[in-house]
Design a protein that fits this description.
4 helices; elongated; 0% strand; mainly alpha
Amino acid sequence: MLLAVRLSGSARHALPAAGTMRRAGLVLAAGMLLWAVTGAAPTALATILLLGATVIYTVGDLWHGTAGAALAYDLAAPDALGAYQGVDALLTGLARAAGPALLTWLVLDGGPIGWLALAGLLAGTGLAVPALTRRALANRAERSPASGQPISSST
C-alpha cells in the first residue's frame, strides 16, 4: 500500500490509463509465469519465486485497479456515468463470484499449462486495451450530444 499512490499516478485519463492497463497485463502475466515454474523448483528456489511472484502480482494488481477505475470513468458517456458505473460494478461482482471457481479449475486442474494459459490471457488482454481505448475514444468523438458539439476526450 505504500506505493499505491505512486503507482497509480499515470492512470488519470483514458489514454494513459490504457497504457497502464497494458503494463498491468504484462506484469500480471509475468507473475503467473513465475507461479507456473514453482512446482518444479526445489523448495528454497520455489520460496524465492513465490515471494517474487507475489510482489510482481501486487504491483500489477495495483496498476490494474487504478487503470480500470480511470477507464471506467473516463470512457463513460457524460450523461450516463451512473449507468456505466453500475454495469462496471455488476461485472466486477460477477468476476468476484465466478472467478475463484474458474481460476481454481484452471490452475489446479491445469497445472503449469493452466498458469501459462492464464498468463497468455492476461498479457493478451492487457495488450488489447490501448487499441480498444483509442477506438472507444474515436467512436465517442464522432457522436455529438444534443448541442451538436462533439464529446471531447481526456488525454
